[in-house]
Amino acid sequence: MIGYITLGTNDFDRSVKFYDELMSHLGEKRLWKSDSMAAWGSSRDVPALCITKPFDGKNATVGNGGMVALKVSTKEQVDSAHLKAINLGGTNEGSPGNRGSNGFYGGYFRDLDGNKLNVFIPASNA
């Protein structure tokens, strides 16, 4: 089971502001923040999304093929969250829509540091 996912950032304060607004838009809250790391979710008992300054002091980089998927309940939530991310300065990596023939619906974007995320509803909810 996943406890949390961590994304690196090179501008911690800017990234905290981005995720404070995006995660609040999705109904989640900031769980905690230190000088170099912060986490969002519904509680400490379920998986969380974290950002961090790299521990080794080197620049954060994005992984090719890596992505964080944020599950929501409706297509409207996908559309709204994708638009919110873009309005906060993220970049579009795939506008919201159906993917494949199984009913999966998602919208893809990159955060301010280039990390790829997806907001989606599972095919069973479509």
Automatic annotation (TrEMBL):
Domain VOC: 1-122
Gene3D superfamilies: 2,3-Dihydroxybiphenyl 1,2-Dioxygenase, domain 1 (3.10.180.10)
Tree of life domain: Bacteria
Pfam families for this protein: Glyoxalase (PF00903)
PANTHER family linked: BLL2941 PROTEIN, GLYOXALASE FAMILY PROTEIN (AFU_ORTHOLOGUE AFUA_5G14830)
Name the record gives this protein: VOC family protein
Organism: Microbulbifer okhotskensis
Lineage per the UniProt record: Bacteria, Pseudomonadati, Pseudomonadota, Gammaproteobacteria, Cellvibrionales
